[in-house]
Amino acid sequence: MKSAICLLCLLILLTLWGCGLIIEEGREVLAEVGGDPIRLNDLMLRIRELPFEQRARTNDPNDSTRLQARRAVLQAMVVEHLLEREAVARGIVVPDEEVEALLEEREEQNTATNGVKETVPDATTGHAHTHHGGEGHSRQEIEKTRRRLLIDKLLKQQLSEDALRKYYDEHPELFRFSPPLVSCELLVVDSSDKRALDQVHRKTKEEGMTLGAALASLKDKPRIIFAGVTPPASLAQIAPSMREKIEMIEVGQVSDPFFLHAEGKDQYAVARLVDRIEKAPFENVAQQIQGRLYDEFIDALKQRYTVVYHEDKLNYRVGH
């Protein structure tokens, strides 16, 4: 009898000890953001939410592939924690109404697309649940949406158009073209039509016409090889004989005629400078500036809140 009781007690202790190991293993700290831990359980829950292909890479047989995928997920979680902490520190709030409105909007979109209410797995229980509006959303889903909105508000504040334009104006050297880009109205004819092109050049220069208008005014038209406006291109990409003439004129002026040699043929040409672009337009580089400011912002937050990684814990085994 005593042996049976002792054996039972031993089994209970072993069971409790095993459960303790599982709980403790899940609570292993993989990173800290300002002292707040991101645990193994947090990472595993996030991985379960990933699309299948990304999720599969986090359990790839290849050590390098597996660790790289897990590291990427962990780093994304760290960034989210940083942004959330900064948003809270700035006093940014997300009312319940905004959270509910976004959840309902997503649900309506999903219903319109699939014809059914959205069914999603609960990251806490692993079981699927179906939204029925209002109170049908899980607490975890509500908090996840709230965090997303909180971060969105912070980034809209930090990366506003005013902030992007300020950076653009204060760092002109980063967006200057050297050499500049030029766009020209170009007329190219066969060298045998030199006299006709000289007439076009004279009319354009004396009467302030475009090359096209001057060409249209001629009774005897030359054989045209090219007539039109060239897209912006660097002066370095333009034929030397043309570049030499373009560098001598201002926007709106016409160059002296020049010879070109292309495809084994001698050609005669004239160009009117339409535009000289010294600096990339703001609209063309706004996204680049946004990326640069975002990276600088994240680096500053890492310094402010102190991020510590424990990546040696990333090589866990699923089901261990």
TrEMBL record:
The keyword Isomerase applies. Its EC number is 5.2.1.8. InterPro entries: PPIase_dom_sf, PPIase_PpiC, PrsA_foldase, Trigger_fact/SurA_dom_sf. It catalyses: [protein]-peptidylproline (omega=180) = [protein]-peptidylproline (omega=0). Coiled coil: none annotated. It holds the Pfam family SurA_N_3. The keyword Signal applies. GO terms for molecular function: peptidyl-prolyl cis-trans isomerase activity. Residues 160-285 form the PpiC domain. Residues 105-143 are annotated as: Disordered. Residues 132-143 have a biased composition (Basic and acidic residues). Keywords: Isomerase, Rotamase, Signal. This is peptidylprolyl isomerase. It comes from Candidatus Abyssobacteria bacterium SURF_17.
